[in-house]
Amino acid sequence: MAAVATPLQGLNAVYQNWIQVLIQLDVARANPSQASYDAFVLAADRTGLVVGSPDYQLDGEMYNWDKLRATIVTNMLALQRAIQDASGPFQLSTRACP
Fold first, then answer.
1. Directed axis angle between helix 7-30 and helix 34-45, to 10°?
2. So what's the pLDDT on residue 54?
């Protein structure tokens, strides 16, 4: 029987997947090849990200990943905030009844 992950562990796992997506995106942009694009698509599949085409022109169409990268970074910042919120510290306040 598999151990049940806590919400914090789940958030950290998702964040690690997004890190891999960002890394693979930067690799594909720096070294445009089918292999680097395939590695990016594989990493993106783990996050449910719909992948567009890289920055280049093909058959008269221009493809741009700058907006995709900005979206990935925005998602990662939101995950960081959620992880911080889930990490605590927590403070419980109680009042004594008269």
1. 160
2. 61
When pLDDT is cut at 50, 70 and 90, the band that residue 89 belongs to is confident
* Tokens representing residue 24 in the block: 């693979």
In a domain, 77, yes or no: no
Please indicate, yes or no, if residue 85 is contained in any of the structural domains. Answer: no
Element (H, E) at 95: none
19 located within any domain: yes
Can you give the pTM of this predicted structure? 0.71
Total length of the chain: 98
Structure-token pair, residue 55: 């920055």
How far, in Å, CA of 31 to CA of 28, rounded?
5
Range of the domain at 14: 1-52
Dihedral angle computed from the Cα positions of residues 61, 65, 68 and 69, in that order, rounded to the nearest 10 degrees = -170
- Domains: count for the chain: 1
